[in-house]
């Protein structure tokens, strides 16, 4: 399969991006600065990411919020207008089919805006059409998505979109930029303050170039996007969460409200309720390695007796901490912060210990 | 007198007398990106051509380093333990991985010289 270009493809090439196929799209893994420099730039300044590969859609119709709740455990009816919630599509066994962001666009909850993962979007949209045929699904294929992330993101974006810095964390607002309507969300996936901007595809390059002209802003590739989200303790679908892991095993309890826990009414609710009451078989934890060699996805996790207690689901190098970090699932008895464990890399045990997530404190503007 | 030879897998060997310094090429470090850890072979290890002789870890992934020729590892670059970024900064100089006592000099004939390696890179582009 040939990877599709995003609306910013020419810009990536012009900036010297090293392009790779990711979820069917040709995207930059890094620019000439390199992953570590791009990562640290985002933590200190503002990084611009092309996330146009992600799926954007409107779901609308009477009671859309209540209807969508039948497919995910997030509380959409309790969400205020123009506020955003993180949730997960679940299967009948309580496993995660995808994770997504949902914005409630009107008071009644009759219109929602969804952003889903690129690799899952075809499946997600089929799921919506099959299960909610009474609702209208409008897939926004003609819109790009840019993320501007970092402590100086608000300052830089405010110069182009006056008023945007007043937006609250996990809130969305429409802004007009050069005659085009942008859906701007105060959200992101780096652990930093920042924005995600949905813009008509034909205008995306103009906006990206305008932002890159700001001294605070540099273009950032997928490599740093991955290391930033790992440091922030955020799950990557298909790695840290999948169709076998439940939201409770993944430690995403915070994304399920009291009402939804009690009432259920989403696929796999029985498992979620059972795990909330009786505990889980495994838990997602952060792991900080004592040495310098990284452990990658798939590495076995063993306890002090050498017994296998889990497996690494994401692992790499933390540019902010200058040491290797990982996430993985372990038996609950091994999940307490500080628990010494070893990660098996090329047949050798690398000493590590459980670390409370996130590895680097989140700096959202609440 | 020294000469540098290459493998199609992007290792190099700088030959000086019966000793060769092995590392990964400047092209390879550029492809890997920021190197964060290098696993070096043990001194005394005897390699055959194509044996795994080390691992280079970038932010994104781990890659094997293969021995270009047969021989015994006589020295490793300790500087990489403290500063693996030397591989990015000076891959074909200060970023060498290990030195090998060349077992069979005839094997060097099978490696690529600079012009042949350059042609190989162009064929990949």
From TrEMBL, chain A:
The species this protein was found in: Rhodoblastus sphagnicola
Keyword S-adenosyl-L-methionine annotated: no
Family: Belongs to the GcvT family.
Binding-site positions, substrate: 196
Name of the gene encoding the protein in the UniProt record: gcvT
Catalytic reactions on record: N(6)-[(R)-S(8)-aminomethyldihydrolipoyl]-L-lysyl-[protein] + (6S)-5,6,7,8-tetrahydrofolate = N(6)-[(R)-dihydrolipoyl]-L-lysyl-[protein] + (6R)-5,10-methylene-5,6,7,8-tetrahydrofolate + NH4(+)
GO molecular function, one term: aminomethyltransferase activity
Protein name: aminomethyltransferase
E.C. code: 2.1.2.10
Top enzyme class: transferase
Database matches in NCBIfam families: gcvT, PRK00389.1, PRK13579.1
GO aspect biological process, one term: glycine catabolic process
UniProtKB/TrEMBL annotation, chain B:
Annotated cofactor note: Binds 1 lipoyl cofactor covalently.
A GO term from the CC aspect: cytosol
Record has Nucleotide-binding as a keyword: no
InterPro entries reported in the protein's UniProt record: Biotin_lipoyl (IPR000089), GCV_H (IPR002930), GCV_H/Fam206 (IPR033753), GCV_H_sub (IPR017453), Single_hybrid_motif (IPR011053)
This protein's record includes keyword Membrane: no
Gene Ontology biological-process entries: glycine decarboxylation via glycine cleavage system; protein lipoylation
Necessary cofactors: (R)-lipoate
Keywords: Lipoyl
Domain of life: Bacteria
Gene3D superfamilies reported for this sequence: 2.40.50.100
Residues the record lists as N6-lipoyllysine modifications: 60
Function of the molecule: The glycine cleavage system catalyzes the degradation of glycine. The H protein shuttles the methylamine group of glycine from the P protein to the T protein.
Homology family: Belongs to the GcvH family.
Subunit structure and binding partners: The glycine cleavage system is composed of four proteins: P, T, L and H.
Protein name, per record: Glycine cleavage system H protein
Organism per entry: Rhodoblastus sphagnicola
Gene name tied to this protein: gcvH
């Amino acid at each position: 399969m040939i990877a599709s270009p995003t609306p910013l493809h020419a810009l990536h090439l012009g900036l010297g991006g090293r392009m790779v196929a990711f979820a069917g799209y040709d995207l930059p893994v890094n620019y000439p600065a390199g992953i570590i420099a791009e990562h640290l730039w985002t933590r200190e300044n503002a990084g611009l990411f092309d996330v146009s590969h992600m799926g954007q859609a409107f779901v609308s119709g009477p009671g859309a919020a209540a209807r969508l709740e039948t497919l995910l455990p997030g509380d959409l009816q309790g969400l205020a207008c123009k506020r955003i919630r993180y949730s997960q599509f679940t299967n009948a066994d309580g496993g995660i089919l995808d994770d997504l962001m949902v914005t409630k666009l009107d008071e009644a909850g009759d219109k929602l805006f969804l952003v889903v993962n690129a690799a899952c979007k075809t499946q997600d949209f089929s799921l919506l059409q099959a299960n909610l045929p009474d609702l209208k699904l409008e897939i926004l294929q003609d819109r790009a998505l840019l993320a501007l992330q970092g402590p100086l993101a608000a300052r830089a974006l405010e110069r182009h979109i006056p008023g945007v810095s007043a937006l609250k964390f996990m809130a969305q607002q429409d802004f007009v930029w050069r005659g085009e309507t942008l859906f701007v969300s105060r959200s992101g996936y780096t652990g930093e303050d920042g924005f995600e901007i949905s813009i008509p595809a034909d205008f995306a390059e103009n906006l990206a170039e305008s932002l890159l002209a700001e001294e605070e802003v540099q273009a950032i590739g997928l490599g740093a996007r991955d290391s930033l989200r790992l440091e922030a303790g955020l799950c990557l679908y298909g790695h840290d969460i999948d169709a076998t892991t439940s939201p409770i095993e993944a430690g995403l309890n915070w994304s399920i409200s009291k009402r939804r826990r009690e009432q259920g009414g989403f696929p796999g609710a029985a498992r979620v309720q059972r795990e909330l009451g009786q505990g889980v078989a495994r838990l997602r934890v952060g792991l900080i390695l004592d040495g310098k060699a990284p452990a990658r996805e798939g590495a076995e996790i063993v306890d002090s007796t050498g017994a296998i207690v889990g497996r690494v689901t994401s692992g790499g190098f933390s540019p902010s901490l200058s040491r290797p970090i990982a996430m993985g699932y372990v038996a609950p008895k091994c999940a307490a912060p500080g628990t010494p464990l070893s990660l098996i890399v090329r047949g050798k045990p690398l000493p590590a210990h459980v670390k409370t997530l996130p590895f680097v404190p989140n700096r959202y503007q609440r | 007198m020294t000469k540098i030879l290459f493998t199609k897998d992007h290792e190099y060997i700088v030959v000086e007398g019966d000793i060769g310094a092995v590392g990964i090429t400047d092209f390879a470090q550029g492809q890997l990106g920021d190197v964060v850890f290098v696993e070096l072979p043990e001194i005394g290890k005897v390699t055959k051509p194509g044996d795994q002789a080390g691992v280079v870890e970038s932010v994104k992934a781990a890659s094997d380093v293969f021995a270009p020729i047969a021989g015994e590892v006589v020295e490793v670059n300790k500087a990489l333990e403290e500063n693996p970024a030397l591989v990015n900064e000076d891959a074909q100089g200060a970023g060498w991985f290990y030195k090998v006592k060349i077992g069979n000099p005839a094997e060097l004939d099978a490696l690529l010289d600079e012009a042949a390696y350059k042609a190989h890179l162009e064929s990949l582009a």
